[in-house]
């Protein structure tokens, strides 16, 4: 069984269906890239995987458990499935370290002092060792996004979801955030990434899924999806972005 899997996932907002029966499988230690035009369902799918949005129908299985059943405690799942968005969502009145320690302190009940060594190691690992006491408005966009990733990793997740995390960055800052993803990839972190960075997806993804109108229209290894797409909609999308 796949580490993370959706079966017939359906999600609508009022009369607007966004996910129309998505079947997705994510193997442990793999990187799956979701590509497609804005409005194709990528962000909503990620929010459903993290239980930020309840599904209307279908199932989500994580590590052998159906996590889409009503009444399930979402916090228990979110500790294991981290998510990072394109907006950094850092608290402006807290410095970088305080932003990172907030959730682990609340969830585990441990003190700042007990959690700080591991957090410091994460900051240093991703080139932020000199910025732990800086406030968000003292950091560049790329640095803020890296702090947001460190904040998610501080919860020790087993899988990470990334929703267009480079789309709000200036082009020269994109590379430093993608380098973080490369490092996580090398360490074997399971990841699902919605992205417009086609070069990154082509280089590092194990599987690429092209979403169109709320369904996965085509999926496969990057060399197949980018090099020999089968669907006309996939070809049309790639011709615009490559």
Please describe the topology of this protein:
Blueprint: E1 4-13, E2 16-26, E3 31-35, H1 42-49, E4 57-62, E5 65-66, H2 74-78, E6 81-84, H3 96-108, H4 112-125, H5 141-153, E7 159-163, H6 171-186, E8 190-194, H7 198-204, E9 207-212, E10 215-220, H8 222-227, H9 232-241
Parallel strand pairs: 3-8, 3-9, 6-7, 7-8
Antiparallel strand pairs: 1-2, 1-4, 4-5, 9-10
Please describe what this structure looks like.
This protein is an alpha/beta fold and 242 residues long. Helix content is 38%, strand content 25%. The strands form 2 sheets. The chain has a 6-stranded mixed β-sheet with strand order 6-7-8-3-9-10, with helices on both faces. A hairpin with a 2-residue loop joins strand 1 and strand 2. Helix 3 (96-108) crosses helix 4. The longest helix has 16 residues, at 171-186. The chain starts with a strand and ends with a helix. The model has no long low-confidence stretch (mean pLDDT 95).
Q: Could you give a quick summary of the protein structure above?
A:
By secondary structure, the chain is an alpha/beta fold. Helix content is 38%, strand content 25%. Helix 3 packs across helix 4 and helix 3 packs parallel to helix 5.
How many distinct helices?
9
How many whole angstroms does the radius of gyration measure? 18 Å
Largest sheet: 6 strands, mixed
Strand order of the largest sheet: 6-7-8-3-9-10
C-alpha termini separation: 34 Å
Ranges where pLDDT stays below 50 over 5 or more residues in a row are none
Helix vs. strand class: alpha/beta
The shape, in one word, is globular
Number of strands: 10
User: Overall pLDDT, averaged?
Assistant: 95
- Write down the secondary-structure element order: EEEHEEHEHHHEHEHEEHH
What fraction of the residues are assigned to beta strands by DSSP?
15-25%
Fraction of helical residues: 25-40%
């Amino acid at each position: 069984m796949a580490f993370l899997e959706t079966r017939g996932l359906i999600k609508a907002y009022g009369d607007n269906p966004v996910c129309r029966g998505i079947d997705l499988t994510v193997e442990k230690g793999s990187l799956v890239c979701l590509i497609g035009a804005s409005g194709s369902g990528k962000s909503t799918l990620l929010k459903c995987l993290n239980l930020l949005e309840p599904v209307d129908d279908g199932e989500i299985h994580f590590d052998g458990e159906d996590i889409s059943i009503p009444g399930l405690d979402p916090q228990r799942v979110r500790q294991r499935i981290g998510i990072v968005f394109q907006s950094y969502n850092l608290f402006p009145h807290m410095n970088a370290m305080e932003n990172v320690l907030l959730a682990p302190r609340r969830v585990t009940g441990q003190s700042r002092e007990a959690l700080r060594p591991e957090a410091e190691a994460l900051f240093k690992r991703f080139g932020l060792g000199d910025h732990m006491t800086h406030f968000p408005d003292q950091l560049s966009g790329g640095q803020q996004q890296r702090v947001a990733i460190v904040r998610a990793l501080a919860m020790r997740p087993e899988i990470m979801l990334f929703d267009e995390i480079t789309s709000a960055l200036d082009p020269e800052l994109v590379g430093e955030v993608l380098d973080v993803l490369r490092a996580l990839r090398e360490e074997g972190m399971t990841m699902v990434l919605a992205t417009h960075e086609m070069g990154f997806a082509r280089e590092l993804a194990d599987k690429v899924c092209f979403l169109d109108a709320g369904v996965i229209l085509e999926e496969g290894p990057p060399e197949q999806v980018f090099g020999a797409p089968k669907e006309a909609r996939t070809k049309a999308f790639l011709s615009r972005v490559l």
